[in-house]
Prior knowledge:
The chain is α/β, with parallel strands linked by helices. The chain has helices at 12-27, 29-33, 43-47, 49-56, 60-67, 79-89, 113-128, 132-135, 149-155, 168-181, 198-203, 214-226, 252-256, 263-267, 278-302, 322-332, 343-365, 368-385, and strands at residues 9-10, 139-143, 160-165, 185-189, 206-213, 231-237, 388-394, 405-411. Bound molecules: S-adenosylmethionine (SAM).
Amino acid sequence: MLTTHTSLLSGDTLDERFVALNTFLLEQHSIWREKPFIQQQLSWEADFPELSSWLQARSLAHAEDSHADPYSIPAPHPFGGWAQRAQQLCSVDTFSQAVLGARPLRMQNGVTERKWQQIEAFARAVHGDTEQSFTQTQGWLDWCAGKGHLGRYLAWPDAKLECLEFNPDLVSSGRAISQKYLTHAQHTLCDVISIESTVPLQRSGTVVALHACGDLHTHLVRQVSAQQTVALALVPCCYNRTQADFYQALSKQGQASALQLDRDDLGLPLTATVTATIRERRLRDQSMAWRLAFDLLQRELRGVDEYLSTPSLPSTWFNKSFAQWCGDLAKLKNLPALPGQNWSILEAQGWQRLAQVRNLELVRGLFRRPLELWLVLDQALFLQEQGFIVKLGEFCAAELTPRNLLLLAHRA
Ligand SMILES: C[S@@+](CC[C@H](N)C(=O)[O-])C[C@H]1O[C@@H](n2cnc3c(N)ncnc32)[C@H](O)[C@@H]1O
């Protein structure tokens, strides 16, 4: 059995951890794949009725309190065992943080405090690594750079910077900001998935990518290997933003795994909402409660006991009354006219179901991090197979961003 202690993952521990996570995720597949929002009855509930009833008796406030840290709730067997194993398998150290000179105060203009702190933590972690590819690089390539705040932070005061970004407004704003602080900055309008990113990757010293989504980061991982890039610092994001119907594993171990991950599965790590505001949470809850109430209605109306997917709706829809909202959604889904209802009872049922759903979701929540670590390890192992020396750890606290896994790779 794997003994886990907290440390950065590198060398053999990358492989060991991947194997252990793979086994855990496969063994508990039926527990984390099913979504309480869509399925009124989950298959594990028959096996663990005490756990199911305990969770469903809790309030919405209880669910909200436990959402970010589901591991410690005193739920009946076998919840504690799953929680303990998940935590054990996800323990990774935080990268050492170098002390860096203060950047000009105005450099932070237009950047939220949270994003700025992420950038600082990323830069400190990259410089905290003793590897010279990071500490003494002559140039940085910021992949999916936005306005290039991260790259500029790293390149200041006199290193070279190239930013790749496909939104022209961000490219021109980024260019204007860089002119104030750097002498060698280039902001290139480029779709990173296209052939145009090849030359920048070949000429760059170190590539950095903070919160590059799905295909954008898996493509980068493949390309740094193909284009002989020297070093990479990557924080992946939005694993489900991918063209493929199923996750295309990169490493040999990943490809050999029996785990087949569709886009819904890939969205699981993103269900943590630690950075949402109170207003955003309220809107999310209202939307979910109304959709759950509508679900009860549509099952009856269609005579089909199945979830009917509904599109995401503009927030102005929630200015309508609940009855109007249901009627308009029914029209949108080409359902027959809605029969008369006691709308307040139906809405209350939606909120009650929401409390149950959010508490049942705590079980899936235990598997968010294991799945995320499995995905990032697949990329780490691929880079290792390609001859890179790789380290994987956290670069900041999850409260700053739940997407806090940083992968550092440089050529051996
Ligand atoms: C989540 S943001 C991250 C931006 C920045 N790295 C940060 O952390 O603030 C992702 C960025 O990728 C850009 N992007 C999306 N698809 C792209 C593509 N195919 N090529 C280049 N940039 C892309 C978006 O415009 C956006 O600026």
